[in-house]
């Protein structure tokens, strides 16, 4: 059977917003887990404090 995708490709800004949202969600999730464990190192990890300003994004 032949399958196709009729949806148009996403614009670049939509892909960028999705990537930023995923980065923020991952940082928020890890921060919440560390907060539940009373792990104060979460304040010293740059990718958790400033998730959108980390290198390599």
Would you kindly provide a written description of the structure presented here, covering whatever features stand out?
It is a single chain. The mean pLDDT is 88. The protein has 2 helices and no strands. With 57 residues, the chain is mainly α.
Order of helices and strands: HH
> What is the C-alpha radius of gyration, as a whole number of Å?
17 Å
Quote the distance from N terminus to C terminus.
39 Å
Please, what is the average pLDDT?
88
Q: Helical amount among residues, as a percent range?
A: 40-55%
Q: Uncertain spans, ≥5 residues at pLDDT below 50?
A: none
Helix vs. strand class: mainly alpha
**Largest sheet properties:** none
Beta-strand content estimate: under 5%
What is the tally of helical segments?
2
Q: Secondary-structure map with pairings?
A:
Blueprint: H1 12-36, H2 46-49
Name some characteristics of this structure.
mainly alpha, 2 helices, 57 residues
Brief summary of the model shown:
By secondary structure, this protein is mostly helical.
């Amino acid at each position: 059977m032949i399958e196709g995708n009729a949806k148009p490709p996403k614009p670049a800004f939509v892909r960028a917003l999705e990537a930023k949202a995923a980065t923020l969600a991952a940082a928020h999730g890890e921060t919440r887990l560390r907060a539940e464990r009373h792990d104060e190192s979460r304040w010293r990890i740059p990718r958790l404090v400033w998730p959108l300003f980390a290198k390599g994004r």
